Predict the structure.
Amino acid sequence: MKVSREQAARNRVHVVDVAGTQFRKHGFDGIGVADLMNAAGLTHGGFYNNFPSKDALAVEAVERVFAETRDRLREVAVGAADPLAAIIRLYISPEHRDALEAGCAVAALSQDATRGSPELRSAFEAGIEGYLDLMVEFGGVSRGQAMAIYATMLGALTLSRTVVDPVMSDEILSSAVESLLRRKE
Amino acid sequence: MKVSREQAARNRVHVVDVAGTQFRKHGFDGIGVADLMNAAGLTHGGFYNNFPSKDALAVEAVERVFAETRDRLREVAVGAADPLAAIIRLYISPEHRDALEAGCAVAALSQDATRGSPELRSAFEAGIEGYLDLMVEFGGVSRGQAMAIYATMLGALTLSRTVVDPVMSDEILSSAVESLLRRKE
DNA sequence: ATTATCTATAGATCTATAGATAATGC
DNA sequence: ATTATCTATAGATCTATAGATAATGC
């Protein structure tokens, strides 16, 4: 052993964390195992002692990213006078738009996940269910309403990241927030 | 010349059409130039006489797909008593969800386009502008309202394609349609 | 003669594996 | 002795190019 078992376990956790960031930044197909391991400070040969395949790593990375995002959304909801508005404003924000590699896994990777393995798609489905549960629990809306609201949040963030014009990008975000907050009255 | 100039021109058009379908189906990185040319009935060596790069083909393919989608949306809008509702129902439908390779370029490829070349992103921005113009012209809504409505349409379709459970997928679509049509009252 | 298309290949990737190395844990 | 990590590489891709081929258009 080049490192202790404890260090090896830490290394594994670190690889999953790095993968979560790199996959969001470059897409599932935009970063290779060798570059991922290199970014984690390890050589790529050691990868297959910890993960059966690149896809298995992708599933673990997505699950961890969802857990982190859910925690952050819950935090802002718990401390807010209007929890649903707080969630909407956090998600549909210039900061989230500009933090592709640290943001929501759905907004970064869901279109690729559509073409991915059943295991990967299941991880996304579970993550989306988690978002909906949170909105129902703290937002005081039905599951169907939560679906429509989250669809708007996801679409607005995706559009704002795709267009080149920064004015148009900001306009997409503010229009979506305004539409969602007004609809509650 | 193995073929006449007219046939060569038709071949070029055909390659762009095939690319539009194959890119939507497999993603920009999920299909190679050789396989694309093979799907078009040509060998991959001839590709670079017609296109300077794979990315240039992607830009042309996206532009053509947007033109086709915009035409179809205009058609249903022109013939409808409620043009905006007709656009919404056509876009947020199980048929559109199940036709990834023939559907909207934004729903199939925009998250990848975010990581793409400025030329590719500009093609998407122009296509999105076209959608918004159509909704403003036929739907009787402001540009900002069109942005929020299209965000919901895009998000709902993306989510419905990502989840595995068909019941949940249908529920996402129907919830989004219901939310958009009710909001007009 | 021109040129659209072809075959063949260069050079750079990619995922995954085989076997060597070396430090931990018994 | 066990095993986490390493080096090295197999085999399959990928984009792009070079040069041959062969039919059109002059």
Notes: Chain B has a mean pLDDT of 95. Chain B touches chain A through 51 residues (CB under 8 Å). Residues 129 and 162 of chain B are 25 Å apart (CA to CA). Residues 1-5, 7-8, 11, 42-43, 45-46, 49-50 of chain B lie near DNA strand C (CB under 10 Å from a C1').
